[in-house]
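Aggregate trends can hide what the representation actually does to any particular protein. The sequence in question and its C-alpha cells are set out directly beneath this paragraph.
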Amino acid sequence: MSDELKADGQGRSPRLWTGDFYNEGVNAHAGLFDKLGEECGVFGVFGHSEAASLSYYGLHALQHRGQESAGICVADGTEFNYHRGMGLVKEVFNNDNLQTLTGTASIGHVRYSTSGESKLANAQPLVFKYREGDLAIATNGNLTNAPEIKSELEKMGSIFQTTSDTEVVAHLIARSKHDDIVSAVKEALLKVEGAYAFLIMAQGKLIAARDPHGLRPFVAGRLGTAWLFASESCAFDATGGAYYRDVEPGELLVLDMKTGRVTEDRFSPIKQRAVCAMEYIYFARPDSDVDAVNIHSARKRMGRQLAMEAFVDADVVTGVPDSSISAAIGFAEQTGIPYELGLIKNRYTGRTFIQPSQELREQGVKMKLSAVRSIVDGKRVVMIDDSIVRGTTSLRIVNLLREAGAKEVHVRISSPPFANPCFYGIDTPSRTELIAAVKSVEEIRQAINADSLYFLSKEGLLSAIGQTNSEATRGYCTACFDNRYPTVVPDEAALGCGCD
C-alpha cells in the first residue's frame, strides 16, 4: 500500500510519516512523546590509520544523542576530506564514502535539531577555509551568548552560512590576531559562554575543549597508541578502545599530527562545576560513565531512593523503556515487589509526523509502545519513568496500562519536577509548556490519570548519583529543577541548541 494514501473510511491507514530520510525535520515537539530532546554527540580520533572507520563506529554508539544528521571530517596531514548527510549514521555512511575519508585524525558528529533548520548546511562537522588553511569544528552544547556575538560579527562584515552558533566560534578563530590555532581557539573560547564540548581540527592539530563548568560530558580514551574523544564512554567500547579520563572543565588538549605529542593546556580555570544532572537521569546510555559514575548504577540507586521516599504497596513494578528500566529495577529490588516487562517498545517505527486527530495520535502511541496484558491485567502497577515534561506522554502510558487491565497505576518519577527550561543544549519546551511549572503535584496526578504520583527529591537525586563534591548542588547542574543556573542565561525564546 502506498504511503501516500490518506484515510478514506475504507480501513486503509493514513500516512503517519514523511520525508526522504529517517527523522527528516522532526524535533521533540513533533513526536508522539513529550520527552526531552536529545543532545548532540561528538567523537574524535587521533593517531590511527583507520580514523574514519573508528569514527563511524563511535558515532553509531552515540546515535541516541542525535538522529537527524551525521558527519565525519578526516585529516591526512595536508588536506581535509569530509562527508556529511541527513539521517542515521548507517544511512549517511557506506563502504564507498568511508574509503574516501583517508587520514589518521578525524572528528565526527551526530546532530539533533531543536530550533534550527533541518538541512545539510547545519550538519556537522562544519568545515571552513580561512587564512591559515582548513578548519573543522564539531560541538555538543549551546553558547548562550551566541546571538549577541553573531550580531556584532555581522556588523563587522561577517557573513554566516548556517544557523549554527558553532559557526560563531569559527568566525572568532578566523578573526583572531593570533596566527597559531591554539592561541586563536583560546581567545575564541574566552569570548563565549554556555555549555560545550568542542573538537577542532586545523594547522595539523586536533584540539579538544570542554566548557569551564563541565556542563556537557566529554571523555578521552585510548586505543593502543591512538587517542579517542567522545561525548560518552560507551563509544569507546564500540571501537575496541578504553576510557582514559574525563576532559576537565576549562581544559584544552592539543594533539599535534606531526610530532604525535599531546599537550595538556587550559583556556580557563574550572568554574563552579555543574555537570548536567539529566545525563544521569535520561540522556546518557546505561553503559556509559559520566565523571566516573556509571549511569546504570546511578539510575538503580535513584530507583532505590525513590522506593524509600515513596513506597506503595503493589503487585508489579515496570519501567517505561528504555531510560527508566534501571530505576525500575532499583525500585523493585528495594521494595521486593517483582519487576516485570509491563511495557514493550517497538524499536522500528522511527520518529513520526502525526496527523492532528486525537484518534490517530493514540494509534501512533500504540505503534511505539504496548502494554503486556498478561503481566498487568488485574494488577496494582507501579510505573517508573525518568521525567514528566508536558504530561501528555504520561497520560497516554497510564491509559495504556489501564486499557490492558491494570487495577491501579501508581506513577513514580526518578527525578524532581522538571519546571525550568534548559539553555545548555537540551531541547526543552518553554516554561509555560512544562506541566510542573504550572501545576501542583496533585494537579499533575489528576492530569495523567494516575492513582498516585511522586517525584524523587532533589537531595535524593544527588545522593543517588553518588558524588560527595562539596560545591553547590554537589557539582551538578540542577537548574531544570530548582532554577539555579550556573551561568547568566538570556531570554529563553532567543536560544536553541548550539548544534543547530
